[in-house]
Structures are given as C-alpha cells and as structure tokens.
Amino acid sequence: MRPLKRAVMQPRRLHESKDRHDYPGGWLFRRMTATPSNIVLIGMPGSGKSTVGVILAKMTSRDFVDTDVLIQTSHRRTLQDIVDQDGYAALRKIEEQILLGLDVHNHVIATGGSAIYSDASMTYLKTCGILIFLDVDMLALQSRVADFGKRGLAKPADQSFAELFQERVPLYRKYADIRIECAGLSQEGVCMKIMEKTGSQPRFPTIP
Questions:
Q1: Is pLDDT at 21 greater than 60 in this prediction?
Q2: Is residue 84 assigned to a domain?
Q3: Which of 145, 116, 152 is nearest to 40 (CA)?
Q4: Is 112 annotated as a binding residue?
Q5: Which residue of 11, 18, 39, 118 is surrounded by the most CB atoms within 10 Å?
Q6: Where is ATP annotated to bind (predicted)?
Q7: Residue 113, annotated ligand binder?
Q8: What's the pLDDT score for residue 34?
Q9: 50 among annotated binding-site residues
Q10: 66 falls in which pLDDT band (50, 70, 90)?
Q11: Does residue 47 have a known ligand-binding role?
C-alpha cells in the first residue's frame, strides 16, 4: 500500500478579486467545477477524527491530513499555547486560514473541532469534498479525553464542555453532508459506515 503523503498547503489571499479567479482556468473556477474527491471529517474533540481518518485513508487508498497538525507545524506552537498566549479567537482565525489554504485531492481530512465556526471554510471544503460528522454523545467524549483543559480548545475559558457541546452540535449537523452515529462502533466500524454512505470501495494493494 502506498505511503500517506503530506498535504500541499497554498494559502489564498481572501481579498483577491473575484474576476481574477472566477474564469475558466482560475483556481476558484476549477474548485467549483471539480468532482469532490476528499472525505472531510468534522466533529467534537475526542470523536476520533484523527484516528478514524488514518484508518479510512488506508482503507480507501487516500492520503491523510490533520489540520490541527498543520496549524502546529506551520506556527511551531501547540494549540494550547496559541489559546493561552493569543486567545481562542486567534486560534479560530488561524484555523480558517489553514483550511482555506488547503489544496488537496483524494485525501481524508481531519479538521479541528472548531472548524465549523468558519462558514467560508465549510463552503470551501464542500467544493472539493464530502463533509462527514462523527456524532459521538457527550458522555462518551468525556470518557475518551481525560483533560480537555490541555487540548487547545478554541473556546472561552469560562465555557464548560457541556456548553461547548450544545453550541457546536447544531453547527456540525448544519454543515455535514452525512452524519455517522458512532455509538457501539469500533474505529474500523465507523470507517465501514463512512465507506457505505459515500459509496467508497475498499482498495487493497496488488500482491505480485
């Protein structure tokens, strides 16, 4: 099986004029007319986006990218450090820039939990992929992650996890093309559900 490749990130200038790109051959025109080839995972912290993403990428012979990792490597800081030093709003802005700069095809993309706060990012990702909401109940999330205070969550310091859950779930549902109920499923089981819903077929390496 071929190794996973790193994503190519080419940030776009959000203020660039429409007529520079909305013509045949322009990058925005190509995006809007391309067949979606990416599988984009959205969901709460602890929902398994990164772990499921790696497995799914292998099962479907796609490459994998984790946008939280892109944030940390591009800024050489942890998510928690960005929140502590610059505030949660700064992290959300950085995340939006990273998402709008993604230029990948045939990838599984694991997004950060706060990606859904950017309508521009969700709209952009939909032009080149299918958005999958990994729906995990709050008790399961809390059992999976021991200390949310060190996860670099893009939220106000006084907002509880329960409040964050209630705030975000409607947004995941709003933007998702497909919702996967993860209760009772293994990580491989979640992948199989995604493949079933998206019509993806398992691909295995050819044995010489």
A1: no
A2: yes
A3: 116
A4: no
A5: 39
A6: 46-51, 155
A7: yes
A8: 53
A9: yes
A10: very high
A11: yes
pLDDT band, residue 14 (cuts 50/70/90): very low
Q: Which pTM does this prediction carry?
A: 0.81
Q: Are 179 and 173 in contact (CB under 8 A)?
A: yes
Apex 201 CA angle, 4 and 132, nearest 5: 75
> What letter represents residue 112's amino acid?
G
25 annotated among ligand-binding-site residues = no
Is 143 annotated to bind a ligand? Reply is no
CATH of the domain at 145: 3.40.50.300
CB 191 within 8 A of CB 136: no
**According to the annotation, is 155 in a ligand binding site?**
yes
Question: What pLDDT sits at residue 36?
Answer: 74
68 annotated ligand binder? yes
How many domains does one find in the chain?
1
pLDDT in tens, 144-153: 877 766 666 8
Report yes or no on 10 lying in a domain: no
Residue 172 burial class via C-beta count within 10 angstroms: exposed 0-12, middle 13-18, buried 19 and up: buried
| Average pLDDT along the chain | 83
The pLDDT value given to residue 35? 64
In a domain, 39, yes or no: yes
Q: Is residue 206 part of a domain?
A: no
Residue with tokens 């390496």: 205
- In 10 A of CB 92, how many CB atoms? 19
pLDDT score for 11:
42
Q: Mind spelling out the 3-state secondary structure of 108-159?
A: EEECCCCHHHCHHHHHHHHCCEEEEEEECCHHHHHHHCCCHHHCCCCCCCCC
